Every structure is written in C-alpha cells, then in structure tokens.
Amino acid sequence: MILLLRDRATPLQLELLLQQHKFYIKTAVDIERWVLAGGGDLHYDCEQALLGDGSRQENIWCASFMPLTGRMIFESMVNLRPRQNRSMELLDPIIRERVAQIIVEFLGNV
User: Total domain count for the chain?
Assistant: First the structure.
C-alpha cells in the first residue's frame, strides 16, 4: 500500500508501509515539496504517486529504509538520470542528505 506523507508517520502508517517488504520500505521523496511516498513494490510505484500529486521529476529521489536499524540504501533505477545522476546510487551528497533528513523526520523512531 502506497502512502503519501507530509508529516511524521503514525505507528499504524508505518505498519502499512512495511506490508509489502516486511523489513524495509521503498520510498520516493520530493526534496522540494517535502513529501514522501512509501510502501510500493517498486520505487517506481512511489515515484508515480508523487508525480500524480504534483511533484516534478527532477525533485524526486528514491531510497529504501529499514526502520529497525535506521539503515538507508540510496540505490534505485529511478535515481539514474543522464543530466542529474549517472548511477543507480544517489551520488550527490547534498541531495542524499536531504533525502535522508526527510526519511528520518517522517519514518525514523516511529
């Protein structure tokens, strides 16, 4: 189940986000609008939810989050862009930090 979050997740929302993969959550984050979509089977599903909500492609970045450990993995096909990021791994440290900040704010320690 994909949820769009603009605030910190509730424990029930976190449980719903974990339904797809059990131990981790695939997320897409709009770093300009400060919105997180999570819970999809693929990062692409979360990206599409953000695009449908009015986000712009160049502001959407993806990562997987493991709530039990707080670990983040910044790899996704969605992050691969010829002009912005030439790898599946999110390489820009500033963008990476912003994505991490949003994920921790919305999903950390729930």
Answer: 1
